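Why show two proteins at once? Because comparison is the fastest way to build intuition. When a single record is shown, students tend to memorize it. When two are placed side by side, the eye starts asking what differs. So, the first record is below.
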Amino acid sequence: MANRLSQIATRTGDDGTTGLGDGTRVPKSHGRIAAMGDVDELNSHLGVLLAEPLPDDVRELLVTIQHELFNLGGELSIPGYKLLKDDAVAALDAALAHYNAALPRLAEFILPAGTRSASLAHVARAVARRAERAVVMLADSEEINAAPRLFLNRLSDLLFVLARVLNRANLDGLGGDDVYWHSARLARNLDPDVN
């Protein structure tokens, strides 16, 4: 990946195709392009999350993850190329264990809500799941290394945990705990006989 962008508007994609990192051109509807786009969107959501007040350790972790996602996108852009290392997945496993250990066990489902930073982490989590599905779908038709799929799977789990951490960090004064889903509340709102 020695080439660097020097010109952004090339107009070469006006015909509905785009170039991969190995120089081949594929339709913009290609599954590889969809997976690359989802990874790019995920990385952009992490950029928005990084614009929020965050604990220093979470900030450092997210910056590292952004770089790994760039590696993942680079790997997807060159068929047969391996850029994302297995230790990137191990690092996510370690972070997941570290942050999850300090959290109380969940007794109920939680809503993707709370502080702004926690809510942004939930949005990123949902995009990570979509990116994972896109990589799995691509692997149905092309050979893909396991690391991208595993990385996205672990990252979505980690972002769920980080959302809980960020609600408790309460850096904007609006959080403090998870926002729990209440099935009884839903039943009460749907049933006119329940008060």
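Second record. Ask yourself what differs from the first in the token line.
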Amino acid sequence: MPDLDAMTIVIMVTLVVVAALLVWMSLTMASVEGAVSRVTRASLNNLILEVQTDADTSHFVRMKKISRIHSVQKLIANRYATIGACTFFRIACNVLDGVLVASFIALWGLPLWMQLVAGMVFALAIAIVSVLLRPRSAGALKPVDVMLRYSGVITWAVVLTPFAHIGSEQSAIKRSKDSNLSDDEALEKIQIEQGKATIDRLVEANDFDPEVSEMLRNVLMLSDTLTREIMVPRTDMVCIEGTESLEDLLKLCSRSGFSRIPAIGDSVDDMLGIAYLKDAVRATAFNPAAAERDVVSIVRNPMLVPESKPVDDLFHEMQRTRQHVAVVVDEYGGIAGLVTIEDAIEQIVGELADEHDRTQHSEPEQIGEHTWKMPARTSIADLEEIFEVDIDEDDVDTVFGLLTKLLGRMPIVGASAVTRGLRLTAVDSAGRRKKVSTIVVEPAHVDADGETELTTDERTGQDHTQTHEEE
């Protein structure tokens, strides 16, 4: 082994220091790679507001923090170029570490094969350290803190790698062709997908109950679900005219099972407000004469929401305003439907049912000599086969659809209509939305000769329909 002079020792010490700095740079760039993809512009804007309103810090400290946040905002503006620069420096640092160690061994006069082995062993050691420390995971846990701490280093890395912008521009062009999402929206989508993957891994590892995992997936999907997807469409809304009496409102609430009913004027688009059952009961309980008052006298102003509103935002707004029902409007200002806070909850926990819901028969059931009780989804073909009639309705497929068409509105319990000599009567409802679930079908009134009464139009072969609602 050769004698080492002072200059050689200085070079060796310098190589050791530079190699240590390169190791630190490599780990830092790895943590930044994990942080860049998780920082949004919104989080940085909120942080600026927090710093500006912090009365416990001096003006100099606030300006320094804000300046650093602005630096991070510039880096996030082209996050793919920033990631490319960090990746380049991480790889370059690992390569240079091996070269420096090989040079360090060469100064001792050792053979070439030992220099190569030393460089490879050191590179493997750095890889093992990276696996144990998991710098990317650390950056993902506190992305904003990591970006603020190393903003100066990252800025220099981006400046020294102008070629990273070329790849980022090509990636941006490709993303714009494949998706219309903004940068932050695309990032949020990626994070949601990562959350779903994490939940799937926990389920596979038996760390979570499957039902709990399904609820977590549903929570992640709330931001992707729009109000129009969970609302009750306007055709299925049970409404009452504002000129009806409170007594009529009480009867309608009793028959429909709803405690909040929209009050309308000339049409559904003429929304007067929401009539609450408890308000009607409060008005009439100790003053029977108030039962003759108009419904419009007790209506409350409705909460209006656009049909494009994400369900998570809808849920939080209804929580904040303490509203359980909202009217959904379309882009033209018309009434699109109705949504309740239970509709949003069902997106997380699944369908809700109460103690009044009964198990429904899945097949038609004969309850009299010529009377059948049919599930609402019974097909028209089954109805025709049982009663040996020709309904001839091409635009509806089920008994429920037929009754809805005959009434011209959403049927409720007690609603009845006659067509082709058959009377259809809604007799039961199920589910939280109280939708008609069972319909009784029987021949219409019979005359003295024992034949079914038909209208004049029916005798001539025309489809004349009579409708009736039992009080």
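One difference worth noting in the second protein: The chain has three domains: 6-171, 231-349, 357-443.
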